[in-house]
Amino acid sequence: MSTRHLSDWLMARWPRRTWATRALWPLHLIMSALVALRRTAYALGWARVNTLPVPVLVVGNRIVGGAGKTPSVIAILAHLQARGHRPGLLTRGHGRQSTEATLLLDDASAAALNARQVGDEPWLIWRRTHVPTAIDARRARGGLALLAHHPDIDILVCDDGLQHLALARDIEVVVFDERGQGNGWLLPAGPLREPIDAPSPPSTRGQPLVLYNAPATTTPLPGFVVHKRLLAPRPWQEWLRGDAQHVASHFALQQARPDQVWAVAGIAQPERFFEGLRAMGLSFTPCPLADHASFDPLPWPSDIAHVVMTEKDAVKLDLEQVRKHRPKTQVWVAALDFSPGADFWRALDARLSSLHR
Asked: In what order do the strands lie in the sheet with 171-177?
């Protein structure tokens, strides 16, 4: 069994406590002890914690896979901008090809960079928000480099930094999705990176804000529910230019045969994207790929008329590559409308206000 097949096999069993997960329960105990020891080391000062000169807001999840961190980060950055803040973004850039320890992405450097160099998620976040970004596995080092180039930044948002305890943080936002906590056990017996009620570091102001990327709360933790929907697909070229929403695109795709419409998704949970397209009334051939798939070579046949994909996948496409190798294919992008409720924004604004008292 390949590594990917083994991972898929385990993930299918994580929602419940089955014979397979029970056999791995001793590993859950070992992981629990290691997580507790690591947190104790940082809390007692045995391991170094780096503090940056501006407030830090961390967005992360306790469950593996795509719980909705990226759209949460985009929504939070847009909210901060609307409130008059000048945010910066810290991220490790999972899957990036650049070997530089610290890579800065901003309006000045973007022309010389692409999604492969910086990682698909940082590139998507930057395209949606144009927030100055530091890509570095050591977030504090990246933060200092970013502040040196952009001294007007007054708050830093750390993407996927919940378990990065080497960085002190003021606010934590924990994201869950429909899976909740699964069977409640830690890897590999269950889907959790750490217990869902893991204590926040001493620097944090108050308990984490919990955001549910789901129709309702899915764990015992109190939190806020996100309202989300998949927008009608629009031509890739229009999406790249940032043109207004193409209102007729949905109807054009509905006229095509299902075997001539491929839905391609290189995300942690492709079926979530496919369900959103089906809810629009689209019929298509699903093409699930591994998370952070490179799209080199292009994964659909050359005779396919239409391909629909997520924004995270669309940022990795190369225009010349598509024109050369798939000239008969019209590529469409279905963006996600991701909106936390007003109660979440009030709670976040209260935390932000407390930082300046």
From this structure: 103-105, 133-135, 87-91, 155-159, 56-60, 171-177, 209-213, 224-230, 336-340
Our separate counts of H helices and E strands in the chain read 13, 14
Q: Is the peptide bond before 220 cis (omega within 30 degrees of 0)?
A: no
C-alpha neighbours within 13 Å on the C-beta side of residue 231: 18
Instruction: Give buried/exposed letters for 241-261 (b at 16+ CB in 10 A, else e).
Output: eeeeebeebbeebeebeeebb
Q: What is the DSSP letter of 233?
A: P
Question: 251: pLDDT confidence band, cut at 50, 70 and 90?
Answer: confident
User: In sequence order, what DSSP letters do the residues of 160-222 get, joined into one string?
Assistant: T-TT-TTB--SEEEEEEETTTTTTS-BTTTSSBSS-TTPPPPTTS-SSPEEEEESSS--SSS-
Asked whether residue 357 carries a pLDDT value surpassing 80, the answer given is no
130-156 mean pLDDT: 97
At residue 4, the pLDDT reads 63
CA R_g for the chain? 21
Written as six digits, the tokens of 262 are 């491929």
Prediction pTM value: 0.93
Residue 147 confidence class, pLDDT cut points 50, 70, 90: very high
